[in-house]
Amino acid sequence: MLKREFLELLEKDKEFRYAVAGLLGYREILDELRRLREDFNKLYQKSLEHDKRFEIIEEELKKLREDFNKLYQKGLEHDKRFEILEKKLLEHDKRFEAIERKLLEHDKRLEAIEKKLLEHDKRFEVIEKRLEEHDRKFNEILEEIKRIWETLAEHNRRLSNVEDVLGALAESTYAKFTLDTIAYECVASGDRIVSWQRNARVDNEDIDLLIVTERKVYVVEVKVRPKHSDVGKLLAKTEIVKKNFPNKEAIPILTGTRIGSEVMNYAISKGVRVYSW
To answer: Domain ranges in the chain?
Structure first.
């Protein structure tokens, strides 16, 4: 009861409060209040600093919120793109399923082809064995043909030697006949053979028979089967001989055994004597 009355007096009676404050030590209270004010000011300064820091934090949070919104928008865009990709993947899955079905069909067809190939391989093995047998027989035939060709080559070589001998013999015979004919003409005309030479060489030109008399020089070309070109060569050789025997008449003679009429008429038209034996 006393306590309540005391408290009511403190609340209602100002002079009573001051009196009580004096009794309690007003100066100590003021000092305490001053310290409280200083502490409050410090707290207030700290609160201001905190406010600044909170403002910075709020700015950062604002930026973070903006960045988050941007990321959120990008996330929405990505979601849309993912939805599109999912749809495409579903389409691809359907296409892959169709491809897989086709591949299974191809596998079955390949299995059938492999079976046929195995059958063909067996048939090819039989054919290869037959071909090997044919190759063996063919090689035997080739060896026999080779031996025949070698025999024919030897025969050809011998025939060629015989032809060379016969050709040389024929040329010598035709040259002898021509020499005898010229000797007979010389006796009849009063001329005389001074020299004669088989396979003579005048200014690097080969002459089959060169007969020199007191008045004339005979250039003889011996050919078993002469051609038109042989007539031209004989005339060119005659011109060379004429330069070496300027004081004698140079007479070209074509002699052989199988002289055609065209070559003979051509030679005669060029002033060449033709002796056909």
So the answer is: 176-276
Other C-beta atoms lying within 10 Å of the C-beta of residue 188: 8
Q: Cβ distance 202 to 244 under 8 Å? A: yes
| Residues 181-200 pLDDT 10s | 999 999 999 999 999 999 99
Q: Is 47 helix (H, G, I), strand (E, B) or coil?
A: helix
* Structural tokens at position 4: 């309540």
HEC profile for 88-152?
HHHHHHHHHHHHHHHHHHHHHHHHHHHHHHHHHHHHHHHHHHHHHHHHHHHHHHHHHHHHHHHHH
Burial category of 174 from C-beta neighbours within 10 Å (exposed 0-12, middle 13-18, buried 19 and up): buried
- 212-242 core/surface letters (b: 16 or more CB in 10 A; e: else): bbeebbbbbbbbeebeeebbeebbebbeebb
Q: Say what the pLDDT of residue 224 is.
A: 83
pLDDT tens column, 84-143: 878 887 888 788 788 888 888 888 888 888 888 888 888 878 888 888 888 888 788 888
Q: Return the CATH fold of 176-276.
A: Trna Endonuclease; Chain: A, domain 1 (3.40.1350)
Residue 224's φ and ψ, nearest 5 degrees, are -65, -45
Three-state DSSP class for residue 196? strand
Contacts with 192 (C-beta within 8 Å, 6 or more apart), sequence order: 186, 213, 214
Task: Determine if the pTM surpasses 0.90.
Answer: no
Q: What is the mean pLDDT of residues 4-31?
A: 64
